[in-house]
Amino acid sequence: MIEYIDVVHPYSRFNLIAFTFLVYPSLILAYMGQAAYLSKHHSHQNDCQIGFYVSVPVQLRWPVLVIAILQAVVGSQAIITGTFSIIKQCSSLGCFPKVKIVHTSSKMHGQIYIPEINWSLMLLCLSLTIGFRDTKRMGNAAGLAVITVMLVTTCLMSLVIVLCWHKNVLLAICFLLFFGSIEALYFSASLIKFFEGAWVPIALSFFFLVIMYVWHYGTVKKYEFEVQNKVSINWLLGLGPGLGIMRVKGIGLIHTDLVSGIPAIFSHFVTNLPAFHEVLIFLCVKSVPVPHVRPEERFLVGRVGPEEYRIYRCIARYGYRDFHKDDVEFERDLFCSIGEFIRSETPEYGLGLSHFQEDIRMTVVGTSSENVDCVRMSEDDIHDSEHNRDRDRNHQSSELMEVIKHSPKKVKKRVRFLLPDSPQINMDAMKELHEITEAKEAGMAYILGNCYVRAKSGSSWIKRVVINYGYDFLRRNSRGPSYALNIPHASTLEVAMIYHV
């Protein structure tokens, strides 16, 4: 079982102490000094000179400028980090398009880097600086953004008091009235500067709100369609030679996001091409919130349908710091896990056709090469039989022997399972392993689903615009699954299907 451990970084406690006893008192003293200076020089002729640097003594102005620049660097880094965290959480909840997330730490889950968002922030900062060219308008925009964050945080904190801390509702109302009334005054004062630069954060918020709503709405409709059109096991059991369904040589590896049931893309494939491989594997790749997943806990393997159908389900789990292997090594680990599942399967697990259940349990299967109790796979080099026969013929002429001597040798790969010493395995399992080996030698096809979401007939014009244009544009420009990059293109079969939601 994977252990989810919350790692507390030692620097977090140090940062809390430093903020409480150093940063916060310094911030209060700085604001008190500015307030004292403004109260004494409020009748100054030029209001533009009244500011932070005017209140600082002349001898300390340059050192304070250096400290202010360093503070701006730290503040910008905090904003960037906070943006990364918010985007990642929204993407995990299905409220934002998929982006590339790079985890920079093996110990802390929150230390991430998102290249697309980083470049977007740079372009936005340059656009605002070049567009405004005025610190007053930029200050108005920043002021409205800050006070809006404070007001929203206060409202959410009142919900945390009731829902998470289980305190009295009156305490949450008092907290909201006390802090919310003060922040509401500052918020109303910032709204006065709406046409003087304060409109920028509102416009950006509305823009990202539309993107998040369109993506979330399309994702929910797509998931509802997949769940409603999920193929049942009874439909799979009804497939056979009588319906014109043929089983061809080889292995079909079907990538899906469903961890249970048969995806609708498979029924669409079988309906249009009434044949599928003699061995089918429904593969689901999942990311778990831990740095690394141990090799012995990588795969969850189970059956789909009766034993004689040779259909399996495999869930591959990866941590956020795990390196996705190439197709050759991943195939070897995948088939070793299936072979180990077949070897260690209990007799009561493989139920008959009439007793098969829809939800069947899955088994954690180890694939570590150091574990001698696991099934391993070996590939031996064998020479082509024609060359072996030609080499054994001593009655051929010397010219023919010279040609054979200098001709290149063709090499084939013979795949076989290496079973541990004294395995507890029956003849049915040996037959199943032999069939999988033959299917592996015949070749493997990667079947990927590509769905196009369209609004069904009779939908409103708003829904058609959101689904057919908005969500389709975001889907085509968002990042796809990472495992698709390692799949060989020569063996890939992409099945397209239109979802009418």
What does the secondary structure layout of this molecule look like, with pairings?
Elements: H1 10-40, H2 52-55, H3 61-92, E1 102-103, E2 112-113, H4 115-132, H5 135-163, H6 169-191, H7 199-228, H8 233-237, E3 246-255, H9 264-272, E4 275-288, E5 299-303, E6 311-319, H10 327-344, E7 363-365, E8 376-383, H11 385-392, H12 398-406, E9 411-418, H13 427-442, E10 444-454, H14 461-477, E11 492-500
Parallel strand pairs: 3-4, 3-10, 4-6, 10-11
Antiparallel strand pairs: 1-2, 5-6, 5-7, 8-9
Helix pairs in contact: 5-6, 5-7, 7-14
Which structural class best describes the helix and strand composition?
alpha/beta
In which range does the helix fraction lie?
40-55%
Uncertain regions: pLDDT < 50 for 5+ in a row?
Answer: 1-10, 348-356, 382-411
Chain-averaged pLDDT: 77
- Principal-axes geometry comes out as elongated
